[in-house]
Amino acid sequence: MNHIRARLAAGVFLGIATALVSFVPASLAATSPSSTTAVALPPPAIPGVAPLPGPIAAPAKPASDMGILKVTPDQAVAGTPMHISGSHLAANASVELTWSSANNTWLVDPQPDSVNYLGRSSTPVTVVLAHATTNAAGAFSTTVRAPQDWGGVHDIYAVVNGVEHAHGGFIITRSVTISPRSGPVGTPITVTYRGIGASLYEGGASLLYDNHYVGEMMANWTRGVARVVIRASGTVGPHVIQVGDAISFLYLNLPQSPLPFAKGATATFEVTADTTLPAPSIDWPDEVAPTVSARTTLAPTGSAPASGAGLALSTTRGAVGASFQATVSGLAPGVPTQLVWSTVVGSRVNCKSVCWAFTSIPLATATPSGTSLSSTLTVPDGLGGWHVVQVEQDNKVLAQVPFYLQESLVGPGLSAITLKEGQAFTIHLKGVGWTQLDNTIAVDYDNSYLGYGCGFNSNGDVVLPLHATGGPGIHLIDIYPMIYTESPSFANTPYGMVPVLTYAQDEPALALGYHLPAIRLAIRIVG
User: Fold this and answer.
1) Fewer CB atoms inside 10 A, N or C side of the chain?
2) 277 Cβ partners below 8 Å, 6+ apart?
3) CA dihedral in degrees (431, 436, 437, 441; nearest 10)?
4) Class of 2-31+297-406 per CATH?
5) Model confidence at 433, in pLDDT bands (50, 70, 90)?
6) Residues of 377-399 as b/e, b for ≥16 C-beta within 10 angstroms?
7) Cα–Cα distance, 146 to 75 (Å, whole number)
8) Domains of the chain by residue range
9) What does the DSSP 8-state code read for residue 41?
């Protein structure tokens, strides 16, 4: 077995990015999408998510003389006991109580060279909530707990022999809890918002900290429960955390809207004195198994799938500069062999024709004397997201394995930690990607959304210029995933261009194996 040393293309990729687009073969060029295929992402197995409140109910027909179910109370938080009663039904009959619900998910269009974000979907379903039996007078009553389900209105029907004879309803209202309730600047605060609805206008929430917009909360895969972590900021004393329903930004006069029950809730956090500067950290999302096998940069051109060659990698995830081992088998002896890194170059800005294209970076080359070889490779300095390590002989791809390039900080990430009021500083990241799911990151300063940075045109390298403001003391910078919706533009793509605070459990990239983190930094302003 031959051992070969990786040949890095450091510094080359950035310089050739623009030129490559002009002469890449037409078969490998990517254009602005003229048509899309929406894929409803199967939800990953997120820990702690409540199941459907019951089995799917059989189809039922409404009676011509529909009666009324009495539900007491008729609105409250999930888990509240609710008393359901009905009358004027058949005597001594078995009653099936059904409950209207929904299954929600994200919509994307995974392509060989990118992923298009297409919004979300909600599919109504009806489940069996409970059973009861009428008495000799055709009446029944029962008590069940309001299930952990979407916020908003839920229809309840009393079904006898496949016919809906009586109708009532229950509204699951919103609630917010925080933990802990006090601590110094930088304390992680878990904010849990229960009762997010299933429809578009009820399907998201906006989080404010002292009237500053922090980001959006979603619950498509968590059945109406959004759980996020923010950090305590500001001066010593009480600070108000407010959560309310929104499509990205807070709907301020919700009590006057068609959804008055979606008014949200508030909590108070007490910032205590402390002089300890929080250490930089990267918070990764939940480890979940991807539910969609599609990966970007799996270009089929030139592949030889029946070659019999095999490629094994010691890991399939790492940041720029990380080392990993590649082992190749089934090669033709004496034939020059290349290990290459498949990626893309280009931009989405003003994208109308050829926008980006596949290209390859050489990782290593050797001529094996036998049928196998091994190599220690290094993750190139380039775009984050999914790539492919490929084995080539005679300009044919014999084997390929997807590899995920993670976001990372350059050094400490910050150009300076201790600064004067108004002083400029920068944050430096590597491994920002190119799809609509990972080509941009959103920046909060002291829990206030500033704007975003993009890494496509700069080959994954992002330098964010900021200024130290807010007076002497500790100030926080939190960088969150964001869904890019500016270009290309598709219909019904809400919840874009703002921080996705629920990145750890409810973000479409999770279903495709992406691993998008929140990055936590802090500075100190001195007088």
Assistant:
1) C
2) 186, 417, 474, 522, 524
3) 60
4) mainly beta
5) very high
6) bbbbbbbbbbbbbbbbbeeebbb
7) 9
8) 2-31+297-406, 61-172
9) P
As a whole number of angstroms, the distance between CA 437 and CA 117 comes to: 7
d(C-alpha 355, C-alpha 348), whole Å: 6
Enter the tokens of residue 178. 């925080």
Q: By the 8 A CB rule, do 483 and 494 touch?
A: no
Vertex 48 angle, CA 47 and 52, to 5°: 110
Q: Which of 112, 509, 496 is nearest to 288 (CA)?
A: 509
Backbone angles phi, psi at 327, to 5 degrees: -125, 125
Q: Which of 47-51, 55-59, 434-438, 492-496 has the highest mean pLDDT?
A: 55-59
Residue with tokens 């219909």, as numbered in its chain: 491
DSSP per position, 9-24: -TTHHHHHHHHHHHHS
**What is the structure's pLDDT at 213?**
97
Pairing of the two strands 317-319 and 396-406: parallel
What pLDDT is attached to residue 298? 66
The whole-angstrom separation of Cα 149 and Cα 77 is 10
Q: Count of CB atoms within 10 A of residue 315's CB?
A: 12
Per-residue pLDDT for 24 more than 60?
no
CA-CA-CA-CA torsion sign (478, 481, 487, 490): negative
Rg over alpha carbons for the chain, rounded to the nearest Å, is 27
Give yes or no on whether 2-31+297-406 and 61-172 have one common fold.
yes
Q: What share of the chain is helix, strand, coil (3-state, %, to 5)?
A: 5, 50, 45
- Whether the CB-CB separation of 357 and 20 falls below 8 Å is answered with yes
**What does the pLDDT read at residue 488?**
60
Task: Indicate whether 23 pLDDT > 50.
Answer: no
Question: Which fold does the domain 61-172 belong to in CATH?
Answer: Immunoglobulin-like (2.60.40)
Q: Which of 472, 468, 473 is nearest to 422 (CA)?
A: 468
